[in-house]
Amino acid sequence: MKNKLPVPSQIQKLKDKGIYFNIISEEDAQIVLLEKTYLFKLFYFRKNFRKNLDGCYNVEFAYLSDMASIDMEMRYTLLQLTLDIEHSLKVLLNKYLSMTPNEDGYYIINQYLKQTNVTKQEIFKYKMRNNKVYPEWEKFYQNTPYWVAFEIMSFYHFEKFVTFYYETSKNRRFKLASNQLVLVRNIRNSCAHNSVINVPLFDDTNVTPELNSYFSLHNIEIHFKQSKPFIDIATLLMIHNKYCNQSIKHRASSNLQRLLQRLLLNRDYYDSYNYIIKYIDSISKVINHYIEINTCE
Q: Which domain of life is it from (predicted)?
């Protein structure tokens, strides 16, 4: 077990780890740790920097504080986008299911439960206590129509439903969502649980074929290797652009413009870290493209 540290001791711990206070003073850093964030959250961003041979980071406190601030702004902005996607896909599914001959609304859910091994208890998880369904939902438990299931199921089980629907209906409108909602869920869970998004930034991997196609189609010049946070966020924007209506996308563009301004505010902090600059510039390109195509009058 580790001892609880008062804020002055937290500052000393940071100094011992190679964190500098040349841009933000130690006194101002104490205010940051008391009023704006807390040590465990802020120090997590050290994982975006490599240690030297002495096991120290040699990084300014200001860099960690800036990253924490950007991450918070991202969580607030991107959570709304994940909610937009969930709503828009439910609207689209309702549209197609309502127009499907011989679909009474109950059959599709029975088939979903049968073919995916999802249980009724899992669908009603948030409408139950002590294994009993809340009284106002009991009438839907035995016979559950899709419009009720959509209202109460978790995003994970909704994601599984989208995949099930695509595979059984062969409706290509849902192909992209079926393949990529898992990445949207990554962002949604991080935002909803107030967890860090932008870590790590130096472990690159190949972008997905879906993103490659999207970048190529829209002439967005992005390096084919990117960090996992970039891939998740770019996929979120791609999915949002495909499934949300213009009114939703126009509102999202305004929010993304504020996020972009915050992302670029202290870009010069990271001039010595090529991988962070690449991340900032790549995210900026994707955001700028989204804004450009969705704010045209």
A: Bacteria
